[in-house]
Structures are given as structure tokens and as C-alpha cells.
Amino acid sequence: MSSKRVVLSVLLFLVIGATLRSAIYAQPGFNPIPARVTKARSGLIRLLNQVPYGRDFDNPNGKAALVFDDQYAFVSSPGGLYRTPLPLTPQSSFSLIGFQNTNIFNLYVDNGLLYVLKESVANQGASATDHSFLRSDDHGDSFLPLDGSLQECLSGFCEFLSPTQAIFKNGLIFINAGAGSNLFVSANNGVSWTALLGSFHRMLANSQAIELANRRVLVGGETAGAGYLQSGILGQNLLGWKQVPSDVASPDLQNRGPLVIRSKPNTSDIYAGIPGGLLKSADGGQPFKYAIGYPLFSSNLPFPYISSILFPSGASNVIVVAGRDPDRPYLAYSKDNGETWLDVSARVSYLVADSGAGQSSIDSLTEDSHGNVFASVLFGPTRTLKILQVQFNSPMFR
Q1: What is the pLDDT of residues 119-137, one digit of tens each?
Q2: Is 9 strand, coil or helix?
């Protein structure tokens, strides 16, 4: 290729890139709102514990999660499910109690009971054997499957539809099992399920994010390369629709479907984490605007995949968000209820010795019964789950 053609090709690439960036910046409702990068104050974040795992992290499907009941802390990693007695301290020793080398998507504790959401590996035969949604009534010593009616068999292979998120409310359980637009509810602890959205089939798409704020359901994800964010209203018994979900007013998401949706307790504020930003609604889900926003094409700006949102109970105006950017842990927080944001990811990278050489992410933000906030970091280079304690409930960060 001649030098003139090379120059023309480079110029064309730069023009196309600039045009795409301009188009994104010109989207209705989009004004770049980056979180201000700042050094974390001394004592804000400290390394608490590390749990090694031996599984290859090149293309992980499972995630890290940390939950607490009244006696134990439970943590999941690509290595399995681990447990340690409370209180959680730098000297805590975690023991593997099950699901070794299994893709665990999430953990929950509700009314003292532990729930595990995991991948179901299809097996040949007339029925599935690898359960996807289980409950423990004895602190993880044994597990009861709750997915009996979520089985699907195709071409001689059977599996259970796998959920990545669950919501527990008024004795009901809501899950997004089977991915795509699926949303199911059970009124009898998983004995049977009703499809509120989608169908009892495994979809060739990512699982949608779900949230329930009073009777309002918010769902979001990506389908056919386009992101969506919808809102609907359930009936009084929460088992059917009063108003089926429809698109809410929001900026053009393009292909940036929500990864997580969370409603702030005792307010009408709702947040949705998306690739490259964070959306906020101050009116119960209609409309949404950017609280944090980065353009799709920019080599010198972060592009965080925000997948966790936490509202610390001891600091009413503090909001914490986390994820990855794109292969490093991402952590930012607001001290003024989402108006401005501080990016303290560099401190996390320093603590976990992340040089960007491998895939690392903050997969969960958790608060224990004493108001202590924890971040769970999957650190790819050494295949280690690192638990950080974050002092956002300290008065200096309120």
C-alpha cells in the first residue's frame, strides 16, 4: 500500500472515530459526566482477606459474591462456595463447603436462609441432575433444590434454567432464570413457578437485570444488539400485571443494556448500571438520565462496566458503584446522593496489585449487619478472590 493510501486510511479512521464520538455526545440526554478520579483517603479501603482458586479465569461465567447470615460469612468464587465464622476479619479462614469449580452467579441470605444461584450443566438422559437454584436451611451444610419445574430437555439433553438474580418479597421469590427476557415468580418456595415475562426456555441472550420497587418492576438488558430499560406495575398480590412493562424514557442506550438496577430504599430514586455509565431516575423509574457517563469510543477515558450498586445504611447520602474498567477493578462513590462522583479505582488496583495485565473486577458490594461495607474482587493474574473493607460508613465520607 502506498504512503498516500496509508495516510488517507488513517485520516478516514480518525474522521469516522470523531464522527462516532460526536454522534454519541450529541445523543439526547447525553452529556459526558465522568466520575472525578481522586486518591482514596487513608483508611478508606483496606485489604481484608484473600481466597485462592485454581480455576482458569480467562473466560469466567461465575462471579464473586459475599453474604452474611447470623453465624457465617459465605463467599463464592470460580473455585466454589466458601464459609467462615463471623466476625469477618483479616485472620478469617474460609473453608470450601460445596460447588467446587462451579459457575456460581449469585448468593443471597433471606430470613436467615442461604440461596445459591448457579449454572446447570446439561446432561444426557430424561431428566436434569445439576440443579441451578438451591436453598440451605442449615448454614450451608445441605441444600434443597428449588428448580424442579424449571427443567428443560432438548435433543436428549436436560438442564435446569439458571437464574443470575433473585428478589425476595412478601413470601414470593422472583428470578430471571433462563436468560433473555425471562422473569418468573414463585409463591410456594420454588415448588412451582409462573412466567411473568418470557417462557420456560433457555434463551440465547444474556440474563436481564431485574428490580422490584414496591409494585413497580424494572427490567433491562440487551436484545438483538440493542439495550432496553422497561418498567411495569404488578397487581396487588404481585403475581400478575396491572401494567405490563414498556420502555421508559432514557438516553439512547445503543447496545449498552443495563447490568444492574437498584432502587434506593425509602426514596423514589432508581439507578441502573450500564457499560460506560450509570443512569438515575428521581421519579420512580421515569425518566432516566446519566449520573455517570462516558463515550463509547475514547482511548483516554475510563469505560466502567457498572454491575454492583450499594446504598450504605449508615450513610444516607452515600452511594457506591463497582464493576470493571475494562479489565481492572472499578470503584466510585457519591457523597451527595448521586449528584457528583469520586473514582477511587486506583486505590483498589494498588491493594490487589493489579497492573492491568489480567482480567479483574469487583463483582459484589455487600453490607453486614453492623454496617460494614465489603467489596469482592476477582483478581485474574493470581486467581485470587480478594475481599476489601470500604469505610464509606465513616462520618468523613457522609
Answers
A1: 999 999 999 999 999 999 9
A2: helix
Q: Where do the H-state alpha helices sit in the chain?
A: 3-25, 345-351
Distance (Å, rounded) from C-alpha 21 to C-alpha 298?
Answer: 8
Residue with cell 414463585: 186
CB neighbours (10 Å) of residue 24?
20
Q: How far apart, in whole angstroms, are the C-alpha atoms of residue 105 and residue 282?
A: 29
Q: Which CATH architecture has domain 27-397?
A: 7 Propeller (2.130)
User: Secondary structure of 17-70 in the HEC alphabet?
Assistant: HHHHHHHHHCCCCCCCECCEECCCCCCCEEEEEEEECCCCCCCCCCCCEEEECC
Instruction: Tell me the domain boundaries of the chain.
Output: 27-397
Q: Which three cell numbers stand for residue 327?
A: 479489565
Q: Give residue-wise pLDDT tens across range 206-217.
A: 899 999 999 999
Q: pTM for the full model? A: 0.89
Which residue type occupies 373? V
Residue whose grid cell is 464522527: 19
